[in-house]
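Sequence in, structure out. Go.
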Amino acid sequence: MESDYAKQGKTAAIVSYITLIGTIIAFFMNQDDKNKFASFHIRQALGINISFYLLGAMVSMFDTWLISSAFYIFIFVLWFFGLMTAIKEEQKTVPIVGSYFQNWFTFIK
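Output:
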């Protein structure tokens, strides 16, 4: 468990993983407080959502269930990992791409 600071940003962190709309809501929830814990998870959730839509568009060009199944499992694992770390009040990047999300979305503070 993290400090009280993580507890203050926990709600916004969890909301950020609930679809792209949840990420946008969490972004605005965090505008006044600028909680670093919430910002961390908002960046992770935004990256997962953008990856879902961009990679999903590319995967949809393939007509095989194997490729699309692997894609959905990959996105679900990222989403579930991020959500669980937010619930546990931890700041762990999602596997493989999480560090990139932290670097790409530095405008979220």
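Check: The mean pLDDT is 90. Helices lie at 4-16, 19-29, 36-59, 65-87, 98-104.
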